[in-house]
Amino acid sequence: MIYEEKPLNQGFIDDPELHQKIIDALPIPIFYRDMKGVYMACNLAQEKLLGVTKSQIIGKTVFDIQPFEIAEIYAKRDQELLDSPGDQSYEAKFRDASGTLHDVVFTKAVIRDNQGELMGIVGSIFDITERKKAERRLEKAREATVIASAMMHKIRAGIIIVDSELKVVDSNEAFAKIFGTEIEDLFETIPGLHGADLKELVPEVIYKMLSTTLQSGENMIERDLKIQNKLIHVSVISIYKHRVVGALIRDMSVPALVREEIISRAQRVNRKNLETVQKIAFLLGDNASQTEEMLNSIIESYKYGEEE
After folding, report:
1. Using one digit for the tens of pLDDT, what is the confidence trace for 1-16?
2. Are residues 176 and 99 in the same domain?
3. Whole-structure pTM over 0.90, yes or no?
4. Helical H segments across the chain, by residue range
């Protein structure tokens, strides 16, 4: 008996319903437009992206589905591909039925019939909206970091920021100057002292303030200290709880900073002790240079001691 020969894939070729099931199973939006730019086929992912049904897509052009300014870009790129057949990939905007604008990547290619004649364009769409948002957030964060660092280096008070391992993220020149020539020389070698071990830079009492804040997550702790014959005020703040802390260190031997500190502290104690406020007003006169006397008058409860 002689059997009629039939290609093994004949059933596949003759079954357009199977073709549709295959492309519908793909999670990436896929479409086919003919030479006139009319949608002839698409998959479920394309329907979901657009927010409309297949019946609302097939037989339409991009001008029926997208705003004119967006559709015009699609049509122009389609024509470029038809004029120079091959592959094409580019980023563009895409508006869904709800009006939401998406960032997408189009990947397209021409399709030919059995005679090799162009039939149209097939393409896929990859939604990169979330990636673009993340890129924009990252860029803004970088800009903010540059600005913040530039501003930090203009501040007269010493500033240091450390990470969870108590390694320096950044610091300013004023910080280096407070702790002597050795730290200043290191600052010139390593800008911002980035990566330096905090323990090698500051007295133990300040190290403990930062490490304690890092562990506890406490918003702020403050202390007045006398170190290397300098009266300094240290404010440690939690920037990212248990991850990043910073310290503002002011040399209270500097007259300009003394006056600022007196005003600030006067505002804090105003409601508690009118007599202290009167002392401050007096001390802001000719005796403003007597730093230690002023601070002792303002905050009687504070005691300055050499680092243990």
Report:
1. 344 444 445 444 567 7
2. no
3. no
4. 10-13, 16-25, 44-50, 62-65, 68-83, 129-152, 173-178, 181-189, 204-216, 255-269, 274-283, 291-298
When mean pLDDT is compared over 9-18, 183-192, 270-279, the highest value belongs to 183-192
Q: 181 by DSSP, 3-state: which?
A: helix
**Domain with 15 in it: what CATH number?**
3.30.450.20
**Chain centroid, CA 163 distance in Å:** 17
Contact 191, 168 (CB under 8 A): no
CA pair distance 216, 161, nearest whole angstrom: 16
Measured CA to CA, the distance from residue 295 to residue 301 in angstroms comes to 10
- 112 with 257, same domain: the answer is no
Task: Say if residue 55 is in the same domain as residue 111.
Answer: yes
Name the amino acid, one letter, at 214.
L
Structure-token pair, residue 20: 């549709």
